[in-house]
From TrEMBL:
Gene3D superfamilies given in the database record: 1.20.1260.10
The name this protein goes by in its record: Ferritin-like domain-containing protein
InterPro entries in alphabetical order: Ferritin-like, Ferritin-like_SF, Rds1
Pfam families: Ferritin_2
Length: 266
């Protein structure tokens, strides 16, 4: 369980630092002047306290084996971009715990992961619905992500880590970028320079328990028309499988917010 718990702690350090830095930089006036509700900052302070508690709990469980916080760089430069990134990070946190829980051996560790997961999901739902007036969920099921998929997303914010931190047995995939578009649109597909994208390539779209595969043709892919909410996408060299062995880039995070009538928002 030590590796899985340190993986979770790595994510909690990232989230904890994100809230601590942003809430130190932006005052109540900054939030209201940015058009956010008067009560928004207070709720974000609560979320930040939750993340600090998660760090403290996991650190206490791991003891001397606990990984330490890294140096991070977050693309949040005002309260609005902070709130947007908060929604992304809380969603990734939910997917991370959903994917990792199966590897925990201890019932106590599994219970701890379960109650942290549910809290992360509440955070994501609150930011989406109360702050952004969007759907608080993407469907009947959250999307579980693998260790490597989550590590790939987290590594985008990590600048450096202490040499004393334990080495985690995970890798970051090259970056995948999909052009702007909505479900049903054909969008561009771009990979990082070091990506081996030779041969037939497919984009696998993850939504809940479903994975939909679409072949890349002339550098373009058509986004499936039935997707809604938060969707993760990876590039894979297999038409029916998107595993750590077949993934060559990603994940990319796609957002298709929708209203209570089920229709996509403009």
């Amino acid at each position: 369980d030590t590796v899985v718990l340190n993986y979770a702690l790595t994510l909690e350090h990232l989230e904890n630092t994100f809230y601590h830095e942003a809430l130190s930089n932006y005052t109540q006036d900054d939030f209201t002047n940015a058009g956010l509700p008067e009560w928004a900052r207070g709720r974000f302070v609560e979320i930040g306290a939750h993340e600090q508690s998660h760090v403290d709990t996991l650190t206490a469980v791991l003891g001397d084996a606990a990984t330490q916080a890294c140096e991070y760089s977050f693309p949040a430069h005002d309260p609005q971009s902070f709130a947007a990134l908060s929604q992304v990070l809380e969603g990734v946190g939910t997917s991370a715990y959903a994917g990792a829980a199966q590897y925990l051996q201890s019932s106590d560790a599994l219970t701890a992961a379960a109650v942290i997961l549910s809290t992360e999901a509440r955070h994501a739902a609150w930011v989406a619905s109360a702050i952004h007036l969007e759907n608080p969920w993407s469907g009947a099921y959250d999307t579980a992500l693998t260790f490597n998929e989550v590590y790939s997303l987290a590594s985008a914010f990590i600048v450096s880590c202490p040499d004393s931190n334990p080495t985690l047995p995970f890798k970051a995939f090259p970056t995948l970028t999909l052009g702007d578009g909505k479900p049903g649109d054909s969008v561009s597909v771009a990979y990082a320079n070091d990506t081996d994208a030779s041969g037939d390539m497919y984009i696998a779209f993850f939504s809940g328990l479903d994975k939909t595969f679409v072949q890349v043709t002339d550098g373009q892919v058509t986004i499936p028309g039935d997707l809604k909410g938060t969707v993760y996408a990876v590039a894979t060299n297999n038409a029916t499988a998107a595993t750590d062995d077949t993934t060559v880039a990603g994940p990319a995070i796609l957002a298709f917010p929708y209203g209570p009538d089920g229709n996509l928002l403009d």
